[in-house]
Request: fold
Amino acid sequence: MDLLKVLQVDELAHGLANFSMFPYFDLAHYIVSVILLFAGALEVSRVSPLACWFSSMLFCFGGAVLSGIMLAEPPVAPLSNGTSVLLATIVWYLVFYCPGDLLYCCSALLPLRLVLSGMKEVTRTWKVLGGVTQAHKKYKDSLLVMIAIGWARGAGGGLISKFEQLVRGVWQPETNELLKMTYPTKITLIGAVLFALQQTQYLPVQKHHLMLVYTVFLVANKVSETASRMMLTGSSASPFAPIESIIYKTLFIGSSPYAALTDDLQDSCTDRDASASSGDRGPVKKRTAASQNNGKNGSLQAKDQPENADTGRSKKSD
Amino acid sequence: MDLLKVLQVDELAHGLANFSMFPYFDLAHYIVSVILLFAGALEVSRVSPLACWFSSMLFCFGGAVLSGIMLAEPPVAPLSNGTSVLLATIVWYLVFYCPGDLLYCCSALLPLRLVLSGMKEVTRTWKVLGGVTQAHKKYKDSLLVMIAIGWARGAGGGLISKFEQLVRGVWQPETNELLKMTYPTKITLIGAVLFALQQTQYLPVQKHHLMLVYTVFLVANKVSETASRMMLTGSSASPFAPIESIIYKTLFIGSSPYAALTDDLQDSCTDRDASASSGDRGPVKKRTAASQNNGKNGSLQAKDQPENADTGRSKKSD
Amino acid sequence: MDLLKVLQVDELAHGLANFSMFPYFDLAHYIVSVILLFAGALEVSRVSPLACWFSSMLFCFGGAVLSGIMLAEPPVAPLSNGTSVLLATIVWYLVFYCPGDLLYCCSALLPLRLVLSGMKEVTRTWKVLGGVTQAHKKYKDSLLVMIAIGWARGAGGGLISKFEQLVRGVWQPETNELLKMTYPTKITLIGAVLFALQQTQYLPVQKHHLMLVYTVFLVANKVSETASRMMLTGSSASPFAPIESIIYKTLFIGSSPYAALTDDLQDSCTDRDASASSGDRGPVKKRTAASQNNGKNGSLQAKDQPENADTGRSKKSD
Reply:
């Protein structure tokens, strides 16, 4: 029985590894990405459709653009894949300009949203693996380069969000994905590390097995998070929080950054900020200020955190 | 007679296509570009000649730099053309540091300005075509890449103006060439589309004919615009305004962006801006401020219906 | 005797030219670079170790990253040199997280600081020469490209400090290394010009002689400057100030930029700013505002000028 089970899993893993992302999974990725942008870019979409389109493309193809720049390959390359761009453009048009916001409302329905979110996460595995493989071709032995490119490819939309925001005329330098990593960025980094270790054979696993495990983990996590957020509006504590907290307390003496992210540190920060000069523009101050205005600018936060921007909308559409 | 006329036009087009931009037309381009920079960079020219020179070079060679980055070719390449850089540097020096602002004053005379503006527009044709050809070498079939590179090459100075301003210590993130396209950017985009279509033979025209027509259109438009602006100080309505308005009303439901750009919306914007906080930097915060004025409306609803209510807008477009 | 002396200098120059920077000189470069970052990044190091690490790597490898981008070579390449990155990472960890700030305090001791500063300056010669040689391979005849790449390679950390600050959530667009060049940036530019002239044989010197002279000049200047700053806290007037002043007065008519940098021009600037339109956000205005707050935000200035950031700290550690 056990052997049979193993064989079936092996077959499943093989099947998954030979799976094509195009068109259905790519489509799900485009829909989820553009919908994440929707709340922040609605006004821009009326003023300048071109800027809105460009922003959407950066969300959809950000990973390829960023990893292209990092490897000195043309960042314009994603545009050369006409079919993907056409697909993403159609999604963009329907999300922003469809009468009655049809596509937007449909995709906000819980079951469809769960399916789309899950499918988008599947594309992440392929993208991270694509990045690691691409880097491996140029830099055979360099683990760090593989991790960097795999990460950039998988979490590109988030990492270049500063520049995507700039296209829309928004500029919030006080925070970024490195200062305050969102969950998708973290999980992509872990995936990049795993696939890079597998590629350099430090991790004695077969590639298709790792793909299966990582994909299942991604999808399960995303679906459960989305479901709990949409149904219970409960607090979505990161599954990494305890581990992170331990690592930080062990390695990076001083206050735990997890605590910092959950306002434990705020008092001391405020004190330090109060004594700082007026020209100071450090991240902590702005963060403190932002949280003090918390009641008022809920909408702003949704914009700051593109990967979570769907929260508010889904409530409305329920 | 007709045949003869056609033959002459054909000869003219051939002659134009074999025309060299160097040195006279390039010189005109450098003069007009540096003079455009003059007003904004006068103070910087006294504080740091190097930053001023770098800014000027970005204005003169911005297209080549931007298309280089987009195709992963060295952005430093324009510097390798010593003669052009020398010419541009001499122009820069004479404009900024010539006693009595001689070059600046001369080129502000109406006849000379008309000639220079016209000559600069001629270089645009060559640049757009150069960009499209360059992209065609790397990406044979990709219309979109050709358009993007042709556009970047022809309107580069405008598209990278954010970074050029940053060199001078100026930072205005709330607007950019994509959000609010200027006339040269628009006309260059149209040119890039036309030349890309010609290159892929979707447009059944010969290249030198298209070059002639596009150049004549550019020059005529520019000269008439410059003349009317300098003599009458009349309002320079874009020749594309009606077409744009129709396209936007048809495709992008909601208010015409042209209206948004030309003062229809301005009153309400000004009001809202006046009440915004001093730290306000761009559309997102403006919107937040607006929602604060809204009383206790849910901020999210305010986000969904910014600027103009969707309902009102669809009525208007009906 | 004279001949013998010449022979010895020649041997010394040859010995120096064949010297390897790895590991001791590179180590000194990493220590000095990370310590320069320390004051500005302390808070970030508690909030996000990853952003802090990335910032540190940009300080240590900024020149290679910048020259890579300028020559369309992968900016991620420095990561592929595992040993260097590991060394820099260990330094970063010890500086920021070592209990009792051991490494930081040790390296602030005058004799050790003199040695480290001197050794860091030695690496500058190698970097500038490396950049010039790298550019010479791609662009045989272009003096300007060689100067640009040599400069970028040698002073990269300073030139990309805007982006390094952005990683830490700090954004101060009103100044940059081109607008207000620091001493290391200037001396690197001069070095790049000299080595480029030598490479194109306009300067009839042998390479190893030039390396010796430039290195000795760099080290002597740095050591004397560091010593005078740490012991006397005297004003560190640039050795180029008189020459610069003459050049500016001759070539760039109007006020001398050196005067502008030392507040002579300030009154007129303030007047001009007061009469400027409200949309104006030029550098001079900000500079004036900054200098008005001068007494309060000394700490901030240390952050703006990474290459000088040790001033404040060294006082503290005395």
